[in-house]
């Protein structure tokens, strides 16, 4: 579901689920949508991440290795059944219609997979921390009869279940991404620390933020407000902060931090480079961004910033925040807590 940030949330849940039912997780490719392309692109899992670090937590195998070396023996074409909770809409009645739509069709076509039937697993769910539920999965779908469970959608919730957040520590960038991020930092931000900023301000995001009032836990908002809104209410400013509020918050961060010489900006649309240069001219900082769009490299760089300010509602920001938490690096979010609350606490 969705783009990278959402898929990463789903991945952590699927990792927990596979361990819960004691099944090897076949690492799926990442689904990407590129400008001008009608169909989604499937990018191998290993393009961005290490397999060996995940193996420290549970048994995993890449999709390519599985299809080339394992599937011919245990998952022949005539045995390929798709799993879904209930039937999905599509061309076939009483079916998962596993290949209907995008990215579903392109995903399975990448590996020349056709399904001969469907299996509805409802009312089972994928709460990996419910041992009784995991036992039901094992009893209903023993590996002797069902060697492969191929799900139409990720067996995981969005946003990531609170109990699965800690699994992010096993998701590590591969050496290629690490080397590129370090080279960029060395070549463009040497001689001082840097603050990393994530701005979500594209038109699709502006439209999404219109639902804040009706969705108190919109997208990744639980990382700020809590999974039961126990830490407050989601506000419009937390989802789509005004430019003036962004500038004020960056200034506050610069005043409280030492030896910051650079501001690195990652954005899906407007990086506000000129606005930052004008507003921060008294702070003697340089404003930096990647020359060409590269969301994964952006994330790897944000994960190494001396300080990070991200978007509460964005699952992309949530990825950076989780990585930084496990590194022990400080972070905050736009307009959270509210500036009024901060001022009151300071008094």
UniProtKB/TrEMBL annotation:
EC number(s) per entry: 2.4.1.221
Any GO BP annotation: fucose metabolic process
InterPro entries: GDP-Fuc_O-FucTrfase, POFUT1
GO cellular component, one term: endoplasmic reticulum
A Pfam family annotated for this UniProt entry: O-FucT
Reactions mediated catalytically: L-threonyl-[protein] + GDP-beta-L-fucose = 3-O-(alpha-L-fucosyl)-L-threonyl-[protein] + GDP + H(+); L-seryl-[protein] + GDP-beta-L-fucose = 3-O-(alpha-L-fucosyl)-L-seryl-[protein] + GDP + H(+)
Pathway annotation: Protein modification; protein glycosylation
Residues passing through the membrane, by range: none
Enzyme class per UniProt: transferase
Chief site of localization: endoplasmic reticulum
Keywords linked to the UniProt accession: Carbohydrate metabolism, Disulfide bond, Endoplasmic reticulum, Fucose metabolism, Glycoprotein, Glycosyltransferase, Notch signaling pathway, Transferase
Localization (cell): Endoplasmic reticulum
A GO term for molecular function: peptide-O-fucosyltransferase activity
Family to which the UniProt record says this protein belongs: Belongs to the glycosyltransferase 65 family.
Record-given protein name: GDP-fucose protein O-fucosyltransferase 1
Lineage: Eukaryota, Metazoa, Ecdysozoa, Arthropoda, Hexapoda
